[in-house]
């Protein structure tokens, strides 16, 4: 099956969360119809426009790495404390901000987002900070943990524009006071 991140109304008013009408994301369809946009970017934008949902399974490892936590898109922290796997509007803003910063920082590496370019962007971001050596060791351990038994890197195939659409979904949720329900 997989993980879907579904935009829902916040806070819930009854026993269940009400999904947000896809009309709140209708402008994503413009991007999906643009012939200059890559197929994966168009597919993501089109799906969001039609459903108000992101099929998040493909992005979980990357988002966890970028934000430094595990299970971000699964809302595992929320699930433990609230019993509901929901990312509140503030959490959506945090996810969107991290993705936006990454997409902007990745500009000098081109449109293709790979395991190697992600590592380069994150190393550059950490290199100038306090405790840089400690943070770089942490990053190297995280990157090594994503490799398979033979040392091969994950075969990520993303584009900056696709991750830009992903960040826009979470930013839209944050700006309009929606939450995201992790449905798996």
Describe this structure in words.
- The protein is an alpha+beta fold.
- The protein has one domain (4-183).
- Helices cover 51% and strands 11% of the residues.
- The protein is built from 8 helices and 6 strands, in the order βααβααβαβααβαβ.
- The chain has helices at 28-32, 39-51, 60-67, 76-82, 89-105, 115-127, 132-146, 160-175; strands at 4-9, 53-55, 86-87, 112-113, 158-159, 178-183.
- The strands form 2 sheets. It has a 4-stranded antiparallel sheet. The protein has a two-stranded antiparallel sheet with strand order 4-5.
- The longest helix is centred in the middle third of the chain and has 17 residues, at 89-105.
- The protein is globular and about 45 Å long.
- The mean pLDDT is 95.
Our Rg estimate from Cα atoms comes to 17 Å
- Integer count of domains: 1
**What is the first-to-last residue Cα distance?**
7 Å
Strand order of the largest sheet: 2-1-6-3
Which runs of at least 5 residues are low in confidence (pLDDT < 50)? none
Tell me the series of helices and strands, N- to C-terminal: EHHEHHEHEHHEHE
The number of strands is 6
SS-based class: alpha+beta
Main beta-sheet strand count, sense and barrel state: 4 strands, antiparallel
Count of individual helical segments: 8
Helical fraction equals 40-55%
* Strand residues, percent: 5-15%
Principal-axis shape: globular
Mean pLDDT: 95
């Amino acid at each position: 099956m997989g993980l879907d991140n579904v935009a829902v109304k916040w806070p819930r008013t009854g026993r269940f969360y009400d999904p947000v009408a896809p009309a709140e994301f209708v402008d994503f369809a413009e991007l999906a119809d643009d012939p200059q946009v890559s197929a994966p970017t168009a597919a993501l934008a089109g799906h969001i426009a039609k459903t108000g949902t992101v099929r998040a399974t493909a992005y979980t490892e990357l988002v966890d790495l970028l934000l430094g936590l595990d299970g971000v898109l699964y809302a595992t922290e929320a699930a433990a404390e609230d019993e509901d796997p929901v990312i509140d509007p503030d959490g959506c803003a945090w996810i969107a901000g991290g993705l936006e910063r990454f997409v902007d920082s990745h500009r000098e590496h081109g449109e293709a987002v790979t395991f190697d370019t992600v590592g380069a962007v994150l190393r550059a971001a950490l290199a100038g900070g306090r405790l840089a050596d400690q943070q770089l060791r942490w990053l190297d351990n995280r990157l090594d943990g994503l490799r398979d038994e033979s040392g091969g890197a994950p075969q990520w195939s993303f584009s900056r524009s696709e991750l830009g659409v992903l960040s826009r979904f979470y930013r839209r949720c944050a700006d309009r006071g929606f939450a995201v329900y992790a449905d798996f």
